[in-house]
């Protein structure tokens, strides 16, 4: 059993060696894990610091975002024959001693992805801003609704993936990957569970992944919308089309009530045209959803072919 620990890093020269040295040297009798650091365009010697500690280092010439770093780590893990891939941040906010807790459900064959949950009975972790905390809860609610999971924390980067889950993953987002991996695997019926983990937030440290909460929310939102659009096209376009149609119908009803009261459409004829246009747009969107739902069968077949090709190329 080969266990690989993946660490995405951006300008973490001051902490990367400490994080690598704090990793468990033996995981459940499977020997020392292989450490993979993906340096996402650092300018401070992060790659050299990681390499000096014995880690495999893959360096991006330019910053590709944490999603791009994960895609590189994902590919390297498959090529290196990793049976389990553990991801952990490079700033030391997670406790490496909790890695065995992440591995336990995978080793028991219960699941394909184990993600850490930062939100325990105490609620918001210390030094986590209220805006970020509530933003995480909102995103988690959206992902739960879209995927049918019961996860409370869908944005935690402290995770463990089985090889089977890695073979199924097909990601596109460059900015982040945490929500996309959950949606992708959930839509492919790969079991997912979460375990409680401790986290430390540093009050004087700004996120190097998101840069700002607003930017993070916008980019994560785009990934969520695109993923639901691709995996649940009829639900996406059908819901949108129904909403547009009902709004148009409400305008039509309002205008009809006005006509019954006054005997004239004036001066609100434009409302009738707007309502009719919205009705047509709503019907077209629902029709587009039906067409996209039929085309989704092609995507499912292509995903299956990609999975089989990966297994064949990697000798699985």
UniProtKB/TrEMBL annotation:
<keyword id="KW-0812">Transmembrane</keyword>
<keyword id="KW-0472">Membrane</keyword>
<dbReference type="InterPro" id="IPR050256">
    <property type="entry name" value="Glycosyltransferase_2"/>
</dbReference>
<dbReference type="Pfam" id="PF00535">
    <property type="entry name" value="Glycos_transf_2"/>
</dbReference>
<feature type="transmembrane region" description="Helical">
    <location>
        <begin position="236"/>
        <end position="259"/>
    </location>
</feature>
<protein>
    <submittedName>
        <fullName>Glycosyltransferase family 2 protein</fullName>
    </submittedName>
</protein>
<dbReference type="InterPro" id="IPR001173">
    <property type="entry name" value="Glyco_trans_2-like"/>
</dbReference>
<keyword id="KW-1133">Transmembrane helix</keyword>
<dbReference type="InterPro" id="IPR029044">
    <property type="entry name" value="Nucleotide-diphossugar_trans"/>
</dbReference>
<feature type="domain" description="Glycosyltransferase 2-like">
    <location>
        <begin position="5"/>
        <end position="166"/>
    </location>
</feature>
<feature type="transmembrane region" description="Helical">
    <location>
        <begin position="271"/>
        <end position="292"/>
    </location>
</feature>
């Amino acid at each position: 059993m080969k266990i690989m620990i993946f660490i995405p890093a951006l300008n973490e020269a001051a902490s990367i060696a400490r994080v690598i040295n704090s990793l468990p040297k033996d995981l459940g009798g499977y020997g020392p894990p292989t450490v993979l650091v993906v340096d996402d365009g650092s300018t401070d010697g992060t790659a050299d610091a990681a390499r000096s500690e014995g880690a495999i280092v893959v360096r991006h010439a330019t910053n590709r975002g944490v999603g791009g770093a994960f895609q590189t780590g994902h590919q390297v893990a498959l090529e290196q024959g990793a049976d389990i891939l553990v991801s952990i941040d490079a700033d030391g906010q997670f406790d490496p001693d909790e890695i065995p807790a992440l591995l336990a459900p995978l080793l028991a064959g219960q699941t394909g992805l184990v993600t850490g949950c930062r939100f325990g009975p105490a609620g918001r972790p210390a030094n986590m801003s209220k805006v970020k905390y509530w933003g995480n809860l909102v995103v988690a609610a959206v992902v739960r609704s879209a995927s049918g999971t019961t996860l409370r924390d869908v944005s935690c980067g402290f995770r463990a993936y089985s090889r089977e889950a890695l073979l199924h993953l097909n990601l596109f987002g460059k900015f982040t990957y945490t929500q996309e991996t959950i949606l992708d695997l959930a839509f492919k019926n790969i079991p997912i569970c979460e375990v409680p983990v401790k986290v430390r937030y540093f009050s004087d440290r700004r996120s190097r992944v998101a840069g700002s909460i607003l930017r993070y929310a916008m980019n994560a939102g785009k990934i969520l919308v695109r993923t639901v659009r691709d995996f649940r096209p009829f639900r996406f376009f059908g819901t949108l089309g129904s909403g547009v149609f009902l709004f148009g119908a409400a305008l039509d009803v309002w205008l009809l009530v006005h006509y019954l009261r006054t005997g004239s459409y004036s001066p609100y004829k434009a409302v009738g045209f707007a309502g009719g246009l919205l009705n047509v747009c709503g019907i077209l969107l629902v029709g587009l959803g039906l067409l996209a739902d039929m085309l989704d069968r092609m995507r499912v077949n292509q995903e299956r072919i990609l999975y089989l090709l990966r297994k064949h190329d990697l000798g699985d």
